[in-house]
Design goal:
This protein is α+β, with helices and mostly antiparallel strands. The protein has three domains: 151 residues, Succinate dehydrogenase/fumarate reductase flavoprotein, catalytic domain (Flavocytochrome C3, Chain A, domain 1, Alpha-Beta Complex), CATH 3.90.700; 56 residues, no CATH class; 88 residues, Flavocytochrome B2, Chain A, domain 1, CATH 3.10.120. The chain contains 13 helices and 15 strands. It starts with 7 loop residues before the first strand and ends with a helix. Keywords: Flavoprotein, Heme, Iron, Metal-binding, Oxidoreductase.
């Protein structure tokens, strides 16, 4: 961007999110998973190292993050009681699967986890219950649900810390999403999403980042198409004869076609003639047991089971959008339940069909299903 003298806007506006999840085995890792705000929305509370509340958990991100820093009583924990955990069960299972959250069977167990006296935790619960009953909270919380809180309950708990979450600043653009320099719009350069500055002001509202991408991505797409059409028309008018198949760069004449790899051409012909591509179904698949899969449990030799298919994902780990650790947690194991919580069934065949090395035998598949039923 410096090479074309692009201007920046609001580059000093960076949003801090209060609930980055701390992995117990990697507390100093600079990259952290984010705890969904829904965890607080269903009734989760935030506790300091002494087991006390210190903030309105439903406040703005900047307020909660700033209060955590000023209060200076880390480690902080996000805690959900049994009712809240049930309401947002999917998230709890997901975070527990990533070892970012723990399920504890009682208030005493929670106090032990936090290394505090059970009496202190019980007092915190009593004070919070009073706030729920009177609608008068010392930290200004106005909305309560999934109470009351008692020591004889099941809890989900995670260590949390403020994290850098979103940069409101970025490239300065006009209403057509065209990147600007001091001299004006830069021809042919458009952007949208978080790289674009000035959309959200000093503090972005939660839940708006994907909407930002959709709205301004559409504008940027339409604007860039309009620009390209103007360029093509201009070149055609100048004698490039694009309509007749001439190249705008080297003058080579084509017959209105695009070179396509032979495999792709065959696949297209098969589709057009109605013939079913049986190239994958004709390949004999190897059958593995869970014991076979369990032997491949290292980063350089990582197999997992997904919906009855055995995958060798060793070469895919660094390409996984969710990071390799999300897969390595299930190295040598059946990852079906976690996978299906996050993905559509066709993701494997669509993005990494080469990873499929075989199928799970029926006996192992049945045992895996029974084991999940008893969890």
């Amino acid at each position: 961007m410096r090479a074309v003298n692009a201007e920046l806007k609001d580059i000093d506006k960076v949003q801090i999110h209060p609930t980055g999840l701390v992995h117990p085995d990697e507390p100093d890792n600079k990259v952290k998973f984010l705890a969904a705000e829904a965890l607080r929305g269903v009734g989760g509370i935030m506790l300091d190292c002494d087991g006390r509340r210190f903030v309105n958990e439903l406040g703005r991100r900047d307020y909660v993050s700033e209060t955590m820093c000023k209060h200076d009583r880390a480690p902080y924990r996000l805690v959900l009681n049994g009712k809240a955990s049930k309401e947002i069960e999917w998230h709890c299972k997901h975070y527990c699967g990533r070892k970012l959250m723990k399920q504890l069977q009682s208030g005493e167990a929670l106090a032990k986890e936090m290394q505090i006296q059970p009496q202190q935790l019980e007092q915190t619960f009593k004070e919070f219950n009073m706030s729920m009953e009177t609608k008068r909270d010392p930290y200004g919380r106005e909305y309560f649900q999934n109470g009351p809180w008692t020591m004889d309950d099941i809890f989900h708990v995670a260590i949390i810390t403020p994290v850098r979450h979103y940069c409101m600043g970025g490239l300065h653009v006009n209403t057509e999403c065209q990147v600007l320099s001091k001299q004006g719009p830069i021809p042919g350069l458009y952007c949208s999403g978080e790289i674009m500055g000035g959309t959200h002001g000093a503090n972005r509202l939660g839940g708006s980042s994907l909407l930002d991408c959709v709205v301004f991505g559409r504008i940027a797409g339409l604007s860039s198409c309009r620009y390209l059409m103007e360029v093509f028309v201009s070149r055609a008018a100048g004698g490039a004869l694009l309509g007749a198949g001439a190249s705008a760069t080297d003058g080579t004449v084509h017959q209105g076609t695009v070179d396509v790899p032979q495999d792709s051409t065959n696949a297209e012909v098969s589709t057009q003639t109605g013939e079913k591509d049986t190239s994958h179904s004709e390949v004999k698949r190897h059958v593995f047991t869970l014991s076979d899969v369990a032997k491949h449990n290292r980063e350089d030799d990582c197999w997992v089971v997904v919906n009855g298919e055995v995958l060798n994902v060793s070469s895919f780990l660094n390409e996984h959008p969710g990071g390799k650790q999300a897969i390595l947690l299930f190295a040598g194991r059946d990852a079906t339940e976690e996978f299906n919580m996050l993905h559509k069934p066709d993701v494997v065949s669509k993005y990494c069909p080469e990873c499929i090395v075989g199928v799970l035998d029926n006996v192992s598949s049945s045992k895996a299903s029974l084991a999940k039923m008893h969890l």
